[in-house]
Amino acid sequence: MNDTTSAEVSTSYVGSIAPHGGTLVNRYLRGDMAEAAREMACSLNTILLSPMNISDVELIACGAVSPLHGFMGQSDYRSVVDNMYLTNGLPWTIPVTLPVDEETAKDIRIGRSVALAEPTADGIIHTLGVLEVSEKYAYDKTIEAEKIYKTTEDQHPGVARLYKQGDVLLAGDIWLFDQPLAAKTEFPEFRHTPSQTRRLFARMGWRRIVAFQTRNPIHRAHEYIQKTAMEIVDGLLLHPLVGETKADDIPVDVRMASYEAILRDYYPPDRVLLGVFPAAMRYAGPREAIWHSIARKNYGCTHFIVGRDHAGVGSYYGTFDAHTIFDEFNKDAIGITPLFFDHTFYCKKCSGIVSAKTCPHDASHHVVLSGTQVREMIERGEVLPEEFTRPEVSRVLIEGMRRKRQM
Fold first, then answer.
1. Which position among 199, 216, 375, 395 bears the catalytic label?
2. Angle formed by the axes of helices 252-266 and 391-406, nearest 10°
C-alpha cells in the first residue's frame, strides 16, 4: 500500500470554508485496491481496536479529522500534548493515537503493515483495513493526563481510559477497505461524511452553517441556543456524538429519537440537517471544544456553538474554560467561528428561556435540572417539566429507558 499514487489520498472539497489544512482527507480504498488490501490483511498481524480507536479510524478515513492520514507519530504527539499544535503549525488539541501493550508491540516491525480489526458480539473479527507502521514509541500517561484532562485522577473517565490502555503507541497512515459495523448498522441514514455534508449544504444553498455538538437529549435550553444561532446563519447541522460515552449517559438510540421528535414539529425542515458525529467522548473539556470545532470545520460548517462547560465532566474544568481557550489561538488558524453561550434556563418571572446574561432574576425563579435529576425522573417514569423540555421529548425518554430496563 505504499504506492499512494494508485489510491485516493484526499478529495477536492465543496463549500465556503476550507478543511483544516486545506485538503479533505479520504483514506477509504475502493475497487481493486480495496480487494488487494483485504487479501494482504489476511497474512498480517492483527490489532484489535478499542471502541474509541474504532471511532478514530472512521474519523480519519472519512476526513473528519483532516489533515490526519493516520495515527500520530511521536513528534506530533508531543507537540499536541505540550503545545496544542501539530508540528506543521496547525492548531490541534487532542492526541489521536493507537495504544498497544508491550507484548503486542514486540511483534510489530516498523516499515511493515498490520491489520486493523474490531471484535464483534459473536466473537468474529471484522477487519477494517491496514496501518502502515512508521513508528512505535513509549509515552508518559501521567503527563498526557495532566495536559489533556487537567487532572491525574482516575475518577475522570478520560484519565481512567488512558491509564488502562497499552504503554506503546503505534503510528502510521491507515487505509480502510471496510467501514466499522456501527457505520453500517447505527443510523446509516444520518451518517454523513464531511464530503457529503458539504455537498448537501451546497445543494441547499447554505454558505453560513452552524454546528451543534451534543451527547445529551435535547431540551429547551438547547433549542433556545440553536435557534438563536440560526438567526445569523443559513442552516443548522445538529450533530450529536454517537461514539462511546460514559455508562450512565442516556443511550444513543434514545437520544437520537428525541432529536427526531423535536425536529418534526419545532424546526423548519429546510434549515436543519440532522447528522451523527461518530467520535467517542474524551471528556477533555476546553481542549475537546477546540477539537470538536475543527472537526465541524471539516464537515463544512462556518460556525460552532460552544456552551457552558463544553465536553466537561464533574468539576474538572472552569465553567467557561471552553470559551477562553479560543483566545489562545489565532482565529484565522482555527478557521471556524465559535459562538459562545452562557448557562440557559427557563425563568418563571421572564416567562421564557433566558440566559445568565439576560435574566435579572434570582435562582428561585429558574427551572433547572441536573443530569442526575433528569435521569432519576426518567427512570421513575415521571414527565419532565415542560419548561425544561418538550413533552414529545419526555415521552421518548421515558419509553426509551423503559425498553432499556426490559433488555
1. 216
2. 160
Question: Is 287 among the catalytic positions?
Answer: no
In this prediction, residue 379 carries a pLDDT of 85
Give the separation between CA 350 and CA 340, rounded to whole angstroms.
22
Is residue 208 annotated as a catalytic residue, yes or no? no
* Mean pLDDT value across residues 291-300: 98
What are the angstrom distances between the C-alpha of 338 and each of 216, 306, 327, 334?
Answer: 20, 6, 11, 9
Cα–Cα dist 346/369, whole Å: 10
Instruction: Please report which confidence band the pLDDT of residue 304 belongs to, taking 50, 70 and 90 as the band edges.
Output: very high
Last residue of a domain, one of 133, 167, 184: 184
Please determine, for residue 11, whether its predicted confidence score (pLDDT) is greater than 90: no
For the chain, the domain total comes to 2
Q: Could you tell me which residues come within 8 angstroms of residue 2 by beta carbon, excluding any fewer than 6 positions away?
A: 132
Domain boundary among 184, 206, 221: 184
299: closest CA among 322, 277, 329? 277
Highest mean predicted confidence (pLDDT) among 10-14, 367-371, 402-406: 367-371
For residues 322-338, give the mean pLDDT. Answer: 98
Q: What is the dihedral of CA 56, 61, 65, 67, to 10 degrees?
A: 130
Catalytic residue selected from 27, 191, 198, 215: 215
> Do 265 and 245 reside in the same domain of the chain?
yes
- Of the listed ranges 45-49, 137-141, 398-402, the least confidently predicted one is 398-402
Residues 236, 263: contact at Cβ < 8 Å? no
Q: Which residue has the cell 471511532?
A: 55
Distance between CA atoms of residues 175 and 28, nearest Å = 6
Tell me how many degrees the CA angle 272-278-283 measures, rounded to the nearest 5. 105
Helix, strand, coil percentages for the chain (3-state, nearest 5): 40, 20, 40
**In a 3-state reduction of DSSP, which class is residue 201?**
helix
- Work out the pLDDT band at 95, boundaries 50, 70, 90: very high
Let me know if 130 is exposed, middle or buried by CB neighbors in 10 A (0-12, 13-18, 19+). buried
- C-alpha to C-alpha distance for 146 and 18, rounded to whole angstroms: 32
Query: Does the pLDDT at position 369 exceed 80?
Result: yes
State residue 14's pLDDT score.
Answer: 80
Average pLDDT taken over every residue of the chain: 94
Which residues lie below 8 Å from residue 67, measured CB to CB, with a gap of 6+? 19, 20, 21, 22, 23, 25, 86, 88, 90
**Residues 231, 264: one domain?**
yes
